[in-house]
Amino acid sequence: MLTAEAHIATDRPGRYLAQLCKHFDNKGRHLSHRPRTHALPEVRPDQIQVEWSDSDGLLCLPWGQCILRAVPGALRVRVEAEDQENLGRLRDLVTTHLGRFSRRDPLRVEWLPSEVSVDAPGEAVPPRRRPGSRTRFLLIGVAVVAVAVHLALGGTVLAHTSWTGWAVGFLVTVVVAKAALAGGLALRRHGRRTG
């Protein structure tokens, strides 16, 4: 599998990603009605698959695939094909379309060969991790340990009947206070992300 990558500097990477994906999602009609522009063999609409979100896109064409990722200040594009001819087709197709979409403020697309050699499509793309996933797992682990400690403490308190009255009240107060604090911090953090 041959690959090439381009990191295209732009203030609107998400806009260009969506525009390119929507264009190809148009059932490929644009590929069959302008053969001279694209210099490509005829393509049937069922040969094109397109998926995208605000930050990621995937174009699967008969010649290979194109993986798009919008990051702050850039659009990252990776094309994968079985041979050099098809790799060139994909590069030219993406470059031509992005050039047309950015006429007012032309984008500069420079293709570099990928440093990763792969045997099958999609293997070279690392699994996508959401930012902070390690932190999230750490927090979940801490929460599980905290619950286990509280349950053990509660069991100990209930085993000693002389402590039951005031200790249960104290533990319930501590647990409610911790839950309120954790909930408040989570809401504050979520507000910063969406705001």
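Next protein, fold it too.
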Amino acid sequence: MWEIGVECAAVLVKLNELIERCAVNEVIHVISDDRTADIEMERWSDQTGQAVLESRKEGKLTHFIVKKVK
């Protein structure tokens, strides 16, 4: 998911929709430039029970690897 210029709350809505269509153990690569993305993704993971396997910064972008676990 390439989500540059999109507020993290909107990204999470799209991520929820996409992850519903995924099979268990599938992964999604999310790229965001939202400054609060780290905090929001951690909160999202806690609330949904889905796994954030990796989080890394590249300049102003943050990359997340998310795995559907249930």
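About the second fold: The chain is about 35% helix and 35% strand.
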